[in-house]
Inverse folding.
């Protein structure tokens, strides 16, 4: 069973060096060491996003995120976990490591 | 066997066996929806058959076996492959209809797991309450909807959404790890206390002031949790708190439907058996506290209620001990509502002026809470400040949701000179 852990960004500024170090330690010592690691990554600011809509036959490109919000996704983990309790435990550790709140969502 | 006896037997079996049947089906099929529906169908079959065929020798086993057959029928009827796929995803063993029934210890464990699923912290609190009453308590959706003054379809959707999240996010059907257990038991108790309180002080102008079905159900479920997790002192504390509160139920509302305050209640009408059981539980926790186990908030609240119910007359109340218990509670839970209740006890010990000063400090956080204004009104009355007392009653009446309480407050206000 896989879960997406989205990192919710609600303040200005990217991860600090100490946050980056904590995230690396969490990735290596916990997720990879215990076999939960699938994938993870950080994202650039929403202002760098481009919306693409090609449902009409002609691709339409629009600048900016598809929805403007104060909070946005700044990074994510995809983890392998036996059940939601395991996923929530890992998410709690991840939230401490990256110093932000996170959202856990199961894959179908 | 006549139809009346069969019906009474079905009611009793439903009461005693519903949670066991559902839990055993969830364990077998890994799906709350299938378990709930099959259990309901099995009881419906009992209603059809038992009046004619007689009550089977082991009614609980009959219902479980019938429910398992209904579940297998449904799985066959619907796409079997889909269900199997889901089971593989959820990590449950595939159902085997010829599995022998589980030994008793396992079944208790299954009921506990069912309670932990229903009270999972990933679900909204209203969903936890509804799901617990449906899956563990066996109340129907219309009954739960009525109890919480929610439209039936809305309550149905609330329960369905919760079941879907449990399946999709794979909330596990197991007892939480030792590290998580105290917090998860606390979560279960919060749900049970919420059910009890909604029954005890029902809100809404068209409900009975005391909803006996909800208080009784909350007590029944708390007894079950105590039997399953006897080592957690807070469970015994919550049960004692409920029993000592429930013991005063008949004395608490007058014949005309008006709330009667603790100091005006006919203590002879209190239920001595419930009080004795509550006191026994509190003594057990006091012994544990003496041995060095720090009591939690339910145990302290139960102890406060034990002091009240130990006094044959209101003038015999040991207010020093009550204030000391509130001090202990404030250290544990510095919430303004606890501080408000402490002030009521302080009034008895140190007089209304000291208490009023303490209550007034809570205005900022409690201005929208009816009990804040009701407490101020009573204290102002004792201080002879009738005019201010009257406007505090007015505000309390505006904010109170319970009809017995509104009637009480109106009478107290109109008694002012």
């Amino acid at each position: 069973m896989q879960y997406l852990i989205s990192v919710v960004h609600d303040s200005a500024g990217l991860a600090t060096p100490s946050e980056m170090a904590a995230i690396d330690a969490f990735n290596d010592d916990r997720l990879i060491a215990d076999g939960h690691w699938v994938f993870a990554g950080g994202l650039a600011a929403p202002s760098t996003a481009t919306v693409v809509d090609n449902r009409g036959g002609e691709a339409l490109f629009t600048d900016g995120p598809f929805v403007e919000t104060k909070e946005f996704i700044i990074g994510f983990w995809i983890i392998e976990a036996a059940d939601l309790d395991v996923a929530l435990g890992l998410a709690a550790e991840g939230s401490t490591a990256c110093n932000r709140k996170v959202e856990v969502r199961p894959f179908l | 066997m006549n139809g009346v006896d069969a019906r009474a037997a079905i009611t009793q079996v439903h009461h005693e066996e519903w949670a066991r049947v559902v839990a055993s089906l969830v364990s077998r099929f890994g799906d709350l929806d299938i378990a709930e529906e099959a259990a309901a169908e099995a009881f419906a079959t009992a209603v059809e058959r038992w009046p004619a065929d007689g009550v089977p020798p082991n009614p609980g086993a009959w219902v479980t076996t019938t429910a398992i057959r209904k579940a297998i029928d449904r799985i066959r009827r619907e796409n079997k492959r889909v269900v199997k796929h889901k089971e593989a995803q959820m990590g449950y063993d595939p159902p085997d209809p010829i599995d022998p029934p589980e030994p008793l210890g396992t079944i208790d464990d299954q009921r506990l797991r069912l309670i932990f699923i229903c009270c999972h912290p990933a679900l909204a609190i209203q969903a936890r309450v509804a799901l617990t009453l449906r899956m563990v308590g066996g109340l129907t959706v219309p009954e739960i909807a009525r109890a919480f003054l929610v439209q039936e379809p809305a309550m149905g959707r609330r329960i369905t959404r919760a079941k879907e999240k449990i399946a999709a996010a794979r909330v596990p059907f197991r007892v939480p790890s030792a590290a998580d257990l105290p917090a998860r038991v606390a979560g279960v108790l919060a749900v049970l206390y919420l059910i009890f309180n909604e029954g005890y002080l029902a809100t809404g102008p068209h409900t009975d002031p005391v909803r006996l079905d909800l208080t009784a159900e909350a007590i029944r479920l708390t007894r079950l949790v105590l039997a399953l997790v006897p080592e957690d002192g807070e469970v015994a504390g919550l049960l004692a708190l409920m029993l000592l509160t429930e013991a005063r139920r008949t004395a608490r509302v007058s014949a005309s439907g008006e709330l009667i305050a603790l100091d005006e209640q006919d203590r002879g009408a209190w239920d001595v058996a419930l009080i004795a059981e509550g006191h026994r539980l509190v003594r057990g926790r006091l012994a544990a506290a003496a041995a060095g186990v720090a009591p939690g908030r339910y145990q302290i609240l139960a102890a406060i209620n034990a002091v009240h119910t130990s006094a044959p007359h209101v003038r015999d109340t040991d207010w020093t001990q009550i204030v000391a218990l509130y001090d202990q509670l404030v250290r544990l839970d510095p919430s303004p509502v606890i501080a408000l209740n402490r002030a009521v006890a302080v009034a008895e010990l140190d007089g209304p002026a000291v208490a009023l000063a303490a209550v007034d400090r809570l205005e900022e956080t409690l201005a929208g809470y009816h009990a804040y204004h009701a407490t101020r009104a009573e204290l102002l009355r004792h201080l002879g400040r009738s005019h201010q007392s009257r406007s505090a009653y007015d505000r309390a009446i505006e904010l109170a949701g319970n009809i017995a309480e509104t009637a009480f407050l109106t009478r107290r206000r109109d008694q002012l000179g």
Notes: DSSP finds 21 helices and no strands in chain B. The mean pLDDT of chain B is 88. Chain B touches chain A through twelve residues (CB under 8 Å). Residues 258 and 322 of chain B are 26 Å apart (CA to CA).
